[in-house]
Amino acid sequence: MKHLPILLFIILLSCQKAQNNNRGLQLKADESPLMPRAQYIDSVNHHPYEIPFWNYDWEQHRFDYQEPGLTKLRFSNFTFKIAGEMWRMEEKDTLTISEDVGYYLEGRNMWIEGQDPTDRFELYMSVQQRIEEQYDYRIHDQPNFDWEKWEKERIIMNIRSEYYKVRDSAGVYRLPWVHTGEAFFEQRLKQNHDFTDTTRHIDGEMGGSNASFFIDNKFCVYWVDFAMFKIVKTAVDGTVSNHYFKMWYSYGC
Hints:
This protein is of the alpha+beta class. The chain has one domain. It contains 6 helices and 16 strands. The protein has helices at residues 4-20, 38-42, 60-63, 137-140, 147-153, 182-193, and strands at 26-28, 46-51, 70-74, 78-83, 87-88, 96-98, 110-114, 120-133, 156-160, 163-166, 168-169, 172-173, 196-202, 209-215, 218-234, 240-248. The chain is elongated, with a radius of gyration of 20 Å.
């Protein structure tokens, strides 16, 4: 136990180094062109319900980011800007950024600057959802537990959401906690698939896990792995073009 403070310091230092790498770079879409996989991305339907603009309410002091820097996602004739600095991820098929510990997308101001002032823009968001059977160390750590059988029968689902329009305020976008809050993507997933609600918390690393689904008599947890954003640009002559970027969520160090 006497080495615990040193170990914690090393972990924190590693996290800080990770935060500083590849952050604040100006990303150009031409460096990571969309490959045929964009056909799959575009096949996801739009949903009429909108993601609201976050006015902060009483939580402004927690999420009103004042950090320096600006993340610029450069497309052919416009730039998508995010207040503060985000990670760059190397993915060949899609322009990609990532959150980091303490550097989250929710609450940040985002806006689009076009080269042609007559162009109009709309922002849409879809998420990659994962449902998996909850790990219960109280059972799984028992000597006679059949790991092979559990891995074979374990529930794992990957479900893409529909695209939801992101509402702006005077051209500025600011997302609420839609990927972790139960009132948006998770709620709609339960409604669309008629999943049963439940609540079970198991203590563990990084705060443990919370099961919110009960499927086939098994407790399951809900995650969102990444978000896919679609920017719809409409030119003055009516020409419409779609542009994408991807963002991986961070859940800890």
